[in-house]
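Field reference: sequence -> structure
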Amino acid sequence: MTTIKQSDFQSFAEFYPYYLQEHGNPTCRRLHFIGTLCVLALLTGVLFTGNLWGLVLLPFVGYGFAWVGHFFFEKNRPATFKHPWYSLAGDFVMFKDILIGRIAW
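Structure field:
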């Protein structure tokens, strides 16, 4: 497998293969999936209840699961620190790719 180096990516299409490389550990991917699912559930709850306090929990829930995956299982530094927007998009694209079976659970 070719190692992609973290650099200044010109597009999300360039970034996503790097993102996937940084999520090779199945437990890390599962934790990301669970965190993203919880974020979506929280957002749904906020929309239906109108209780905006749920928005305060979003970063803790989403990043909490993901960072446990990186620090304890993947043993790498989350891409969020250098590429926050691409990383956020990567979370949702990987979530979709796991749902449709393109990436192993």
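Note: Residues 24-99 form one domain.
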